[in-house]
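Re: your question from the hallway

Yes, I did run it. Sequences:
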Amino acid sequence: MNKNRNVTIKDVAKKAGVSVSTVSRAFNGYSDINKETRERIFKIAEEIGYVPSILARGMRAEKANRIGIAIEDYDENEPTYSFTYRILVGFMEYASERGYEVVFLPNLSKYQESRLVQILKDYHLDGVFLVGLKLSDEFYKQALRGEFPCVLFDIPIKRGKIGFVGTDSIKGASLAIEHFVKNGHKKIAFINGHENAYVSLQRLDGYYLSLMKNDITIDKTLIYFGDFTEESGKEGVRELFNRHRDISAIFAASDLMAIGAIKELKKMGKRIPDDVEIIGFDDLDLSAYITPKLSTIRQNSYKIGVSAATLLINLINGQNINQIILEPELVLRQSTKN
Amino acid sequence: MNKNRNVTIKDVAKKAGVSVSTVSRAFNGYSDINKETRERIFKIAEEIGYVPSILARGMRAEKANRIGIAIEDYDENEPTYSFTYRILVGFMEYASERGYEVVFLPNLSKYQESRLVQILKDYHLDGVFLVGLKLSDEFYKQALRGEFPCVLFDIPIKRGKIGFVGTDSIKGASLAIEHFVKNGHKKIAFINGHENAYVSLQRLDGYYLSLMKNDITIDKTLIYFGDFTEESGKEGVRELFNRHRDISAIFAASDLMAIGAIKELKKMGKRIPDDVEIIGFDDLDLSAYITPKLSTIRQNSYKIGVSAATLLINLINGQNINQIILEPELVLRQSTKN
DNA sequence: TAATTAGACTAAAACGTTTTAGTGAAACTT
DNA sequence: AAGTTTCACTAAAACGTTTTAGTCTAATTA
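Structure:
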């Protein structure tokens, strides 16, 4: 494919009667260039179909105009990949609009021995979006040093060149609880994620805040800490109904746990939403297909991707916004009375 | 990130006491290089952590060692992206193992005016995997010219530098029909995809073949042509049961259509699998979550990605395998009697 | 013994950019 | 009138590779 390469900057220069450097400067928005010259250059470039080679640019320039997206290890049995895919596409589309090339780094954990910053250099990346990184992960610690631009999903670090993108979990939880309160529930159980996830703490805050605002006394035995998986949702229901047999509403911190909970509730002979109402968190594609269709707090995964790209590119270019918090949305379906 | 760039080929050359070209030749597997020298070079490279710059290489070399994956336009409402994601990851992982960098081309249709071959040059790609390409698509016609290495999913072109990857649809359909026959069904309906999709024809062949093999007379009014969507699955059931009220088994050419069919059957008061057994095709993540859990012909999406990468890299390197057909697998769940 | 070939290596050009360090002319200052 | 500044531009080096066209020595052949 490289044989008779494309139109190069030289062709544009020749045709415009200027030097190669002038064309380069025009394309890179330098100021010391005559307006007419600049326009002529752009017109000619357009005409002959010139596109700067990202490879050549990356080799010479400070910035390669390439960013990476590193994704959690692949698991054959994980049913949430449509969510990941939407993040990915949002990230890609925005990045490509801004002239960045996106390089996918699969199986990051394979490289655990080497330093993350080394990998970024090897790949000529200006920055990286880390999604699904575990807090225990070695790369996580390296990222924290803030040596290079880096965006994290659901992990609220905002120091140095590190950015953070996530959904407002306090608000998300509140939306769910408010809905239950409106429907007259007093005994609202909460199946949370594990305690060392930031979002779990946030969702817990939202749960507390909403209950307090509505003068419902908080009962910690109505809270169960799972690990976001379907199995832990089932476990949560067993445990909670062991403690209280009159729970009438459940808020789960992930759709997967909500789905597990529903399965377990059905097994116990409970009708949903008549006996128990339930609201999840995420809005997986799955959630609209289970029976009953799951009401949930929607995170806009596509927008998460777009925001991550926005943030990362800003960080690379030295700007100082370093977090984007997205609005959650309550989606009412069949697991609640509406 | 580019400031104090990495270890380069020069560092290796200096330390090994040879010229840069020798190191390059060693790394590219040239033969006219002494075995000891080669080994010394590799050892030193390993020691000081040398990794060839893919950018520099791509600029100079015939091949850039970069391949693209172009994906169907993003649709917010499409529920099958976990399937796409698995293809993607399979493709990525294999390509990266073989030393290829993968470039994601989102929204290919945005570029419709320009020639595909032009795009590949602009991006310095050695080849591309096109997934979800419509037959009506302009790029499809361009791909067919075979000017550059290119792999298609589910579209059986095998000429020139074009490769084809897919699941054996004849066999897949047979698996489903054989199961129904074994369970004693005679009136087996078929909700197929649209007639101009290759896989629809294959699945139809499989359907015919299996019926004939089992001495069941073929009744064309038991066949409905949908368009792979959920809605057309519903429509299919309405239409088919209008024609025959005693259908006891349905094979659908996509899980989405099977899901639509199930919804419609439930609405009609049919019990699944007691009144009607149903088998889909694909095995989406969704399918294990609907009620009843869908029995289906599984396509291994991860393997599809791996196979596409394998094929593409072979085509680029001038080898002549140009198709990989994967084995389907019958997955029995709750929509059939097992 | 002279000529050829094989083996192991190298110098330098090339790829398409960006960037550094200017240049020359025109327009201002003093 | 001499010096300074601004404007618009450029030549050439640099980025890290691969590749072309050798070179030099030693071994083989005629």
